[in-house]
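DM from R.C. (forwarded with permission)

"hey, sorry to bug you on a friday — could you get me a structure for this? deadline for the figure draft is monday and I only need the backbone to look sensible"
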Amino acid sequence: MFLDRKSLWPHLRRWEEQAADHDGPFRLRFGTLFVADADAARNVLVDSADTYLSQSGFYRLGPESLPPAVRSEASRELLRVLARHDLPSSFDLGAALGEVSDRQGRLRHQRWGVELVRRYFAPVIAHRRHTEINALVDTYTTSSVVADDIVGHVLRRAHRTVPAVRAGFAERLGRLRAPEDGARDLVDLVLGLPGELSPGDRAQLLQRLVLSTVGFTGVTLEWVVMLGIQHGYDTPTVRPDQIHHLVRETLRLYPPAWRLIRVAAADHDVCGARVHEGEHVLIGTHAIHRSAAVWDGPLDFRPARWEQPTADQRRSYLPFGKGDGMCPANGFAVKALEHLGHVILSGHRGHVRLRTRRPHVRTLLAPPSGWTRLTPTPAPEH
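My reply, with the result:
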């Protein structure tokens, strides 16, 4: 039996339309304050950040974020871990594409990108020495990241699977010690976090880091490849700078993190709107990225706009958030998307088949259901 899997896309479009009719923040019909312009968003995320509860999508236990000093050190360690691995040179794209394709050689949307990125970041997530943990990461990726965060139709069995995966992480992390020579992967990172953290706490943090690593990047990769094929980027002559603009425009029009939520720690005003302590403020990244006041042809897919973006466009571009809660590894995520996007599109001709044209929105903003087929292009003769 399936739970509700209905896409939230109609709500996002309605909120975008409402934002166009309001000058500043406004309240949705269920009472939450909705922020749909860059200045108000920056006011919440940066200028008035001390009037909101500390927030982190990666380093938190339940709703409670880890202390700021711990989060800062964890972010620095995460960047060091990523820098230790030369992922582009070690990744076997052909083998990975074969593993994530179905029996007809098709890449199923809302799944294949996450599974491929899982393989791309495998050395970063859990090195080969963590055989049992790697098996649990694979189970978590399919049972939670794909089934819940992307598709949104979790099977009842999956509700039992995810806690079992966390218990498995906790049991195995409880046997390991933090390395003395620095973290080599996310397992080492969570083991090395200071404080009175139980193995269960560290297991929860590892799950969140896996979601942020494979979920957001994997969904965006599907968009990049699908849109690249539809707009003629699947050619051996496509240049890295063209892929750079393609990735930026993809993240503008279809940001996987389509909203950011903050909780007020005190009564205050946001650009003239009153917010009370304990209230939630919803920052609509998708609406900011589609504002006609900032973007010419906001609903059009135009990678060329990034050749000379305006100052307002740069300020209004928030795919990774801003301020203290900003994704610490956004630079590495973009590099991964640009590398994978280039090697896939330059080395293959593609065909896309969609069942619907509407994106599928749950926790993440994913492509429409359907599939992509890639056919390798012959290597140019020298």
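R.C.: lifesaver. The mean pLDDT is 92.
me: no worries. The longest helix spans residues 199-230.
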